[in-house]
Amino acid sequence: MSFCVAFTSQSPLLEMTVRLRILPAVRCLFDKTVHVKVEGLSPHKPLILRSEVVDDRGIIFKATAQYRADERGCVDVSRAASLGGSYTGVEPMGLFWSMLPETPHHKLLKKTVLTPMQVEISAMDGGNGGEVLASEINYREFMVEGMKRIPLKEGRLRGVLFVPPGPGPFPAIVDLYTLGGRLTEPRASLLASKGFVVMALAYHSYEDLPKNPEYFDLEYYEEAIKYLLSLPEVSRTNCVKISSFQNNIFCGLNLLLGYCVSGIN
């Protein structure tokens, strides 16, 4: 005797086939846009999406968003609007930019660019105690394949040099993310992934650099520019650019060094 069992679209067993996808791929550069798509839900089912990441200090950052599946049992955050949680409306990257630390007053810290930031995305039942239906990890990389990361210890210059893959030569950037002393590599590595040779330059409180310099040493930055221009990977026909998080420093150094070093923009 044989038996045949048919399941309707409302069968709870079908919920076991729920699939969460991170598109276009689970691995991407940190500054690339992705979006989350959940399939295999019951039509119009309430759903909670949660993002979570642990930074290099062990601080947990989280965000949540409430959705409702469409008639096909699908939630696509690039089209569907969040109904509540950490943000509302159609926000393809909302689960990323709206994350907040569990420990207040902390910023997301990434000390090394050699490993990706791992963001876990979970789809949870919105009407059944938050049971996790599916999850996936988005690996957000800081370096493209073939990029070189070279610790910089040349004369009194200290920092890290990032050289993109390929034959070159490339335009160059001196990256002064902050003058607070701590070397910050993520932005420099991402700029290098766009085809620049980038020097993440430390100014003080790093390795053997002075902790509290008595004056602002413009010649230090002049040395950095000249060193970049001496590298075979750096184009002689493109200008060296200065990038700074602090706009007053950016403008001042560009104006001052423009008089001191030929080839700087």
Automatic annotation (TrEMBL):
One of its GO terms (molecular function) is fatty acyl-CoA hydrolase activity. InterPro entries: AB_hydrolase_fold, Thio_Ohase/aa_AcTrfase, Thio_Ohase/BAAT_N. Pfam families: Bile_Hydr_Trans. It comes from the Eukaryota. Residues 31-154 form the Acyl-CoA thioester hydrolase/bile acid-CoA amino acid N-acetyltransferase domain. One of its GO terms (biological process) is acyl-CoA metabolic process. Belongs to the C/M/P thioester hydrolase family. PANTHER family: ACYL-COENZYME A THIOESTERASE 6 (PTHR10824:SF17), ACYL-COENZYME A THIOESTERASE-RELATED (PTHR10824). This is Acyl-CoA thioester hydrolase/bile acid-CoA amino acid N-acetyltransferase domain-containing protein. It comes from Periophthalmus magnuspinnatus.
